[in-house]
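Hi P.,

Sorry for the delay on this. The queue was packed all week, but I finally got your sequence through. Input first:
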Amino acid sequence: NPQFRRLKLCDLVAKAAFYLYNFKKPDWVAETLGVELRFDSLNLSWKRGKNWSGGIDWVFKTVDGAVVICDHKTEKNKTSGLDVMMHPQLNLYAHLYYELTGKLPDYLGIYHLPSGELVLAQVDLNVVQRVVKELEVIEDDIQAAEESDRWRKPLSPAEYGVPCFRRDWKTDALVSVCKYFKHCWPDYAFNIEDELKVFEGND
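Then the structure:
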């Protein structure tokens, strides 16, 4: 896969220099409002945004006063206007801009660095809301999985660093068992039922 081929540092520097040298700001760009706006540096009221990291490449205003959120891409293939309008990353950026300023940007854009072409698409509120909702669902699923794993009951008491039971490290024979062992670990206790019989009646 050419995307994962190993490149020399000099090649990467040369490519970056090429992009910078050939970057041409369109004449209809009137003002740059921000470059590399980090999420964690924004004063967001939206709690979800505080959990994500990343940055908006370029925010600018056109000569007509329209606000554009733009991302730089280096892929070989160019992007269509429809791709820009439906792009999840850009629509998330639009929502973050709304959280910051109280209004949505007018356009989303992708600047194709190899060709110097800037493709724009009008912001669609319905797409923005759908993308944000989908991202919130994904985040909820991740948090639920992490929470479930955090409180997951271990498969055996050996996963705990507590003396639920103890074996002789030489013979592997059961030496001691907590009197509540069967209540806390019924499945595991069933598997070593014969060994536990030695300790019955000692409670």
